Amino acid sequence: MHAHQIDVSDDDVRRLIGTQFPQWAHERVRRVPSYGTTNAMFRLGADKVVRLPFIPGDGVGVPVETAILERVSGQLPVAIPAVLANGRADECYPYTWSVLGWVEGEMPVPEALVDATGLVDDLVAVLARLRELPTEGVRLAQRSGPLAPLAEPVREAMRELDGEFDTDALRRLWDDALAAPEWAAEPVWLHADLLPSNLLVDEHGRLAGVLDWAAAGIGDPSCELLAAWNVFPSGAREVFRARLAERLDLDDATWRRGRGWAIAQAVLALPYYRGTNAGMVEMATRALRALEQVPADHR
To answer: Which segments constitute the Aminoglycoside phosphotransferase domain (predicted)?
Structure first.
């Protein structure tokens, strides 16, 4: 996927576990299929997962995510991974890595959701609880600020998608997002990466867990609206908007900025991961197909 990506094998994981956490050396190691773009994931036994960065610099994020997970642990109405251990770099593997608790569930597929309205309510409850957490000493989330720095990169990426999508409609929505008033209130807690690959649902379609807190922090809550265009089908998307308005005072400006985050994430991801990460391409395509259907006079 990336020019400087390193390969991580089952044998690498067995060696790292055996030398640093010998109490788990007898447990089975097997790779977990993932849409992930920065970490390799390996199941360890029945109740653990090993998370290993495979691009330079991302190992810095392991202590950051650990601190966030420990701060949020026990605060939400659904499961998040428990931090069991952090591993260190060695002569063969160059980054800090982590062992987390395994969370059961399946990635939601919008077209196959058993109870989309129930999932809406569950996710809104998570966002509402996050909004209640103290923000003192919390870092800025990765998608915490204005969209303006992405204006030209997104327009350039859109040019690669001309003829494949209704890029005139996408440009209209992107310009509208850039024109929306910025977040003027105090920054709030964000997960900041609410894609289907970071959510788990149970057999009834209800939210069972929220994964991958590496982007989390505080900032403008509009980026949480990635979920509107990536997780929910159209009818549930409007319910999501209404529930957020009821519980968290979602306004039109935040909805417009959130649409911009959905456009930016999908437009930048699709050409970059085409041919290397089919899952990311599928998610980006689904989001853009939904976004290009927004009527010209609808905000």
So the answer is: 35-261
pTM of structure: 0.94
Nearest to 61 by CA among 101, 96, 20, 91: 96
How far apart CA 289 and CA 291 sit, in angstroms, is: 6
DSSP E strands, 57-166? 83-87, 97-101
Strand, coil or helix: 8: coil
C-alpha 268/C-alpha 288 separation (Å) is: 11
The tokens for 274 are 């085409």
Rounded CA-CA distance 152/8 in Å is 35
> Distance between CA atoms of 285 and 264, rounded to whole angstroms?
12
- Residues forming CATH 3.30.200.20 domain(s) in the chain: 10-101
What single-letter amino acid sits at 216? A
The CATH number corresponding to 10-101 among 1.20.1250.20, 3.30.200.20, 3.30.1360.120, 3.90.1010.10 equals: 3.30.200.20
In whole angstroms, give the CA distance from residue 189 to residue 128.
10
